[in-house]
Amino acid sequence: MKSFRVIGLMSGTSLDGLDVADVTFELLDTEEWKFKLNHASIFSYDKVLLSKLKSAVETPSYELIKLSIDLGRFYADKVNDFLLEFNINKSEIDFIASHGQTIFHQPKIGYTLQIGNGPELAVHTNLPTVVDFRSKDVALGGNGAPLIPVADHLLFNSYADTFLNLGGFSNFSFMKSGQVFSYDICPVNIVVNELMGELGKEYDEHGDFGKGGSVHKGLLDSLNALSFYNEEGPKSLGWEWVVDQIHPLLKIELSLKDKIRTLYEHIGIQIGDAINSSNSKSTLVTGGGTKNKFLIERIQYYTQGKIIVPDENIIDFKEAIGFAFLGLLKWQGKINVWSSVTGSNRDSSSGIVIRP
């Protein structure tokens, strides 16, 4: 049996913080992987850094380079704080695996960008670091996303037969004819949180605000008619798509509460359709949106199979655990991106290893 200890870092498009997970992985003689989450924390961004990240898509290139360096240093500082908090000796850690912060994602025209300077992170933690998990797959003609399905089906397959993540966007993975397939379904937190920001709130706690609104049939029909939902997978979504496709629809004269309530219904319908089309009997749901109880109710309403909500550590840190695992596969030179999931020309071992 082989054992590895990895620090996984994840920051999603909803910018609700940096997830840090200390994970031990064991490769059994049966070639099956087991994992143990030793420690985990979520670190909030300070207001200045958060503001810069939110406007990064419109930032001039030279400022974006500086922001990437600043973010890499922020990651390093938080990893060092994390190790001190839990009294972890750096000699016990094999390496860090960092997803970075997605700024641009346009795989159809050949590019994706995650910032959070890898050398900055490696040097200031004095630990090897694996970064840039998406670019190689995009170069191979793929979507560069979703990547977590590798972890879903190799680490979490005892929970359910299909997997749903509710982050900035929802993505879904399932097995068909012995192959794993996955795609982004629709926007979730990235839109709801933005609307809640008009009230000075970061998110709609438990879905209580939106629950009090009414579904607007015209807006719902317009959202459900977006062409992306009729496209075949693999497919993925980015902020640019939200600006181009969702924002114009939300300019309708309608109360904020009714807009969010309608979005919840839209999300429930789209996710229900995706899960039902896979003939899933059970779906493990993770990501920040899982804590939105009303949204989970709407998803279950439209879903034929069972929706499984795990314990809070898995909800909060599954993606950080997943990228730690993808980093481990890269560290070993093994396949960590499946072409059946991303639509690339071939499977690949993706990521860049940086030594301090």
Order of helices and strands: EEEHHEEEHEHHEEEHHHHHEHEHHE
At CATH level 3, the topology of the largest domain is Nucleotidyltransferase, domain 5
Could you name the CATH homologous superfamily of the largest domain? ATPase, nucleotide binding domain
Walk across the major sheet and give the strand order: 3-2-1-4-7-13
Write down the overall mean pLDDT: 96
Radius of gyration: 19 Å
Per DSSP, the total helix count is 13
Largest sheet: 6 strands, mixed
User: What number of structural domains do the residues give?
Assistant: 2
How far apart the termini lie comes to 28 Å
CATH level-1 class of the largest domain: Alpha Beta
Beta-strand residue fraction: 15-25%
Shape: globular
CATH architecture of the largest domain: 2-Layer Sandwich
Number of strands: 13
Approximately how much helix is present in the residues? 25-40%
What low-confidence regions span 5 or more consecutive residues with pLDDT below 50?
none
Task: Give an account of the 3D structure.
The chain has 356 residues and is of the alpha/beta class. It folds into two domains: 2-144 and 330-354, ATPase, nucleotide binding domain (Nucleotidyltransferase, domain 5), CATH 3.30.420; 160-309, 2-Layer Sandwich (Nucleotidyltransferase, domain 5), CATH 3.30.420. Helices cover 38% and strands 23% of the residues. The chain has helices at residues 47-54, 61-85, 118-125, 135-139, 149-155, 189-196, 208-211, 217-224, 239-246, 256-277, 293-302, 312-331, 339-342, and strands at 2-10, 18-27, 33-43, 95-98, 101-106, 111-115, 129-131, 162-166, 169-176, 179-187, 282-286, 306-308, 352-354. The strands form three sheets. It has a six-stranded mixed beta sheet. Helix 11 (293-302) links the parallel strand 11 (282-286) and strand 12. Helix 2 (61-85) packs parallel to helix 3 (118-125), helix 5 (149-155) crosses helix 12 (312-331) and helix 8 (217-224) packs across helix 10 (256-277). The longest helix has 25 residues, at 61-85. It is globular. The two termini are 28 Å apart. 47% of the residues are buried. The model has no long low-confidence stretch (mean pLDDT 96).
